[in-house]
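Bump. Still looking for Protein LOT5 structure tokens.
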Amino acid sequence: MSYELIIASPKVEDFTALDQHQEQTPQSFFGAKPVLHLHSPAAKVVLSQADLQVNKDFAGLGARIDGPDGSVEFSDVDVWVTSRSLLLWPTSGTGLKIPYPTITIHAQQGSAVLLELNLSDDNTADEDLEFIQLRICPTSVTNSATEAAEQVDGAQANGDRAASPVKALYDAISACQELNPDPNADGDDEEDGMGGFDETAPGATGWITSENMGDFMDEEGNLRMPEGATVIGGEEEVNGGVEEQTNGLGAGAGRRRGADEVDARDGVTEDETKWQRTG
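Sorry for the wait, here they are.
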């Protein structure tokens, strides 16, 4: 789910303060309260009219003000940056709970933090992905749940009191995104690469070992290519006269040398070899 609608107002007691979390070891990592990294009350959220027409849920962020540039502004939106999700709660209306993997881009843009959200599910094709952009303009921030009612001009996020509110908001979202990586990131690499190839399986790398020798021998003890096996690293090269490469073995392995090869070494006969040595 790209986001959830929330109808209950977040409260300071719902979270663990960041400074308290850093000073003590939690009794349990499961079921513990989310950590409040930053709270920005009475922030401004700006979207485009085109995005708002397609995504009606964002219209619940409160009373709207239409701008001349095609933008829509929502004022008095409380922003809660927690360790599990980003919460947008208006003074009236319905709030939004946004998981961090939904945020594909976040950046500082003047006095705002720009967010791009991917609203599509995991099974959506790349050409059908749906995105929405919004800007959050904080006026004041705090990172202590016990002092969330206190509005401070100048950041207190992550211990940086000298940063501006927009820089503090950006840093807090960055920190929480690192705590919540995209679970599908590794799966994409496997699809593009070797996938579930197991190099530890007997014979998987083309080498004959004591574990898979029986797969490469017939009843008379001759080497053979097991049925259904494939060559790793390229197409079978039979037409080029390199027959030994079709069975996944190195050059010279798994074949018998002819009489001319026994009597000659690298194309030089025995007499020629003696002549070269005595010459």
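The longest strand covers residues 35-48.

Edit: fixed formatting.
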